[in-house]
């Protein structure tokens, strides 16, 4: 993907020059090589972006290449190279080709985890978007204490994620948690929030929604405020109902914002490590384990740590997200969006 | 913008690669010279129970500074559950590892196998080696070398609330069957739950597994045994305890919930070890220490047995201050220190001669646990011992929360053991 993109940059630059050359009508006989032309015309641009390219290469490119390489080996904690004080242990892992991928894709662990990861992503994004939209619409009116409501609703976003998650863990505690105290006070049985696989799934989704709504709300509120009020007035004059105004003015007006936040939110939620890791640790059993937390488990929690397996999962996650982004973009383009 | 989207996906996915690599930056400065007075810093990662045991260990560790005024002891309490991984992260990256770590018995051969520990034979760390209890010393040996010094030894028993037992008019259960009837009586008479069974840690499953005549692996025959009939039976037993209401469990905050519900008198029994005694005494039910009773773990249909555990002190091979670290380990495992630990925390010494010391002789908890430790089931001290729990705990929790059957659970566990233990049956 990356290679393809950079080629198209060069190509675009090249075409540009050819086009301009023709229009000037100079037509010098031996044309210099494409690269040299690109360099001589745009050398300052290349110099300007070079530091960024280098930094990205070091902090993203190298780990990525290394990760892909590890996924093609059988590297674990035991056979990688390490030096501890006087001990030096050389690397003894070997290249195994696509074996890891075959194992992962033919076993049911990856596919099972993927299933729940998709359910988790889709439900979190759908619920956060729905709630964010509703709250944004409410807050877009002139109501008393509007800024106070806005502050209160943005609060979850301002609290560090791990603090929120630990607070929720206390609320969910089966014996001593506030939620079950309220339930038993009202005469209901306590709910095994984090101890029952189904409830645990609902619980993690609820926390992620709680954390995600402020972002959706703020983004959509911004979108709402950019829709001209005259449109609503005109529609009202024509006798459109509130629902019709929402469907025909608000939704299309929000489109540029909502497509962006849905894409971002999907990618974030798909890889939302802290909520799952801190709230349930993937449990009970591995009921709430999503792809990233499982990949982390292979690399940091089991022993010996399986670097190869973890990298394999990591690469597959990357591929899935890239495919998703590409498909999403294509769908939007067919609908006439400017992506 | 068109390209931006691909880049965003790329960056987002790569955030995965940047998962935390813990590196606390405690480093021993100024290494001490070979002879003469010791100096420098010794960082010690202690894993004892925070809030009770840690205070005592911190005080004792800092006592080392009095004997060696130029040495600065840095005491760090690392939660037991995180310590194994934290140490491995730090040791492998070569940054932030402590000089001395309190290593659980099963971790010791694994750390040694990975090359993280300094051999201690012939160093000042290992004094009067023959004085150590045989069981305690077993886990410190790997490939013919000694990699740690035993600090405490322990096993498990039933901790019970004598007041609740009196109220319900029951005796301490000796078998799993009795456990069920006793729990039922307690529920009927007092409305309280009989047993708290930890559902998030497979160590608490071992006495039930041994009770049915099972074990995780048979190291002598190089055979995985978790998935035999005894393993299935043991899973069925614990599932039945929870399903029948005789025991309650928790899959997330097992330790905190166990301690708080026992300390508040909400459950009558828990299975636990000497390391929990100091914390349990802080509970309101045990202001009168005499209210806490300890008894052997319940027997299963085949046997009665609890796992042997304990902790060793090991020195990080990359320590910049080996000499002071050796002296620190010796100090922490001396008869005098062990006697003081027993006096304040009711933990069992690992030196035979410490058992003759006055605070140890008179200690009731030690009196109870000494024979239990002697008959406790030893685990095989192979590098993989510490790795056997991760697959087991996932399946164990799944059984207790009704996500899988006992048969499937032990089969899955057995399969991952065979993957881990190359060439085993």
SSE diagram, text form:
The complex is a heterodimer of chains A (339) and B (425).
Chain A: H1 2-24, H2 34-70, E1 82-84, E2 87-89, H3 99-106, H4 108-139, H5 146-158, H6 161-172, H7 178-185, H8 197-225, H9 229-237, H10 242-270, H11 273-279, H12 291-301, H13 307-334
Antiparallel strand pairs in A: 1-2
Helix pairs in contact in A: 1-2, 2-13, 4-8, 4-10, 5-8, 6-11, 8-10, 10-13, 12-13
Chain B: H1 2-14, E1 40-46, H2 53-67, E2 71-77, H3 80-93, E3 100-104, H4 107-113, H5 134-138, E4 141-142, E5 145-146, E6 149-154, E7 157-161, H6 162-168, H7 176-190, E8 193-196, H8 206-211, E9 217-218, E10 223-224, H9 229-243, E11 247-248, H10 254-263, E12 267-272, H11 277-280, E13 292-296, E14 309-315, H12 322-332, H13 335-345, H14 358-361, H15 364-374, H16 389-400, H17 406-420
Parallel strand pairs in B: 1-2, 1-3, 8-11, 8-12
Antiparallel strand pairs in B: 3-14, 4-5, 6-14, 7-12, 7-13, 9-10
Helix pairs in contact in B: 2-13, 6-7, 9-17, 16-17
Question: What can you tell me about this protein's structure?
Answer:
By secondary structure, chain A is mostly helical. Helices cover 73% and strands 2% of the residues of chain A. Chain A is built from 13 helices and two strands; from the N terminus they run H-H-E-E-H-H-H-H-H-H-H-H-H-H-H. Chain A has helices at 2-24, 34-70, 99-106, 108-139, 146-158, 161-172, 178-185, 197-225, 229-237, 242-270, 273-279, 291-301, 307-334; strands spanning 82-84, 87-89. Chain A has a two-stranded antiparallel ribbon. In chain A, a hairpin with a 2-residue loop joins strand 1 (82-84) and strand 2 (87-89). In chain A, helix 4 (108-139) crosses helix 8 (197-225), helix 6 packs parallel to helix 11 (273-279) and helix 10 (242-270) packs antiparallel against helix 13. Chain A is flat. By secondary structure, chain B is of the alpha/beta class. Chain B has 17 helices and 14 strands. In chain B, the strands form four sheets. Chain B has a five-stranded mixed beta sheet. Chain B has a five-stranded mixed beta sheet with strand order 11-8-12-7-13. Chain B has a two-stranded antiparallel ribbon with strand order 4-5. In chain B, helix 6 (162-168) packs across helix 7 and helix 9 packs across helix 17. Chain B starts with a helix and ends in a 5-residue tail after the last helix. The model of chain B is unreliable at 1-34 (pLDDT under 50). Chains A and B meet through helix 2, strand 1, helix 10, helix 12 and helix 13 of A and helix 1, helix 3, helix 10 and helix 16 of B.
